[in-house]
Amino acid sequence: PRGRYDVDDPSLRDYVIGYATSHDARTWTRRDDEHVFLNPPQPGDWDHQMQCYSTVIRGNGRTYMFYCGNGYGHDGFGYAIRDEG
Fold this sequence. Notes:
Blueprint: E1 20-21, E2 29-30, E3 52-59, E4 62-68, E5 77-83
Antiparallel strand pairs: 1-2, 3-4, 4-5
């Protein structure tokens, strides 16, 4: 979800990756608590202010999520891996 926009506070423009499911692509159920980083970003990390523009790929019994960090990817991009087993 994206924070509310405030021209005086740029931190409120940051994005955080969320998770939702849908059976019909019209009605969505938020399930953010079911998929979280095991080692969440810490202050000073390249992605501590923002995680955005994710892409998920499944293969070899794993799910890979690639995403951009702070500044819409200015500070870098990375990935997270989830084992399906």
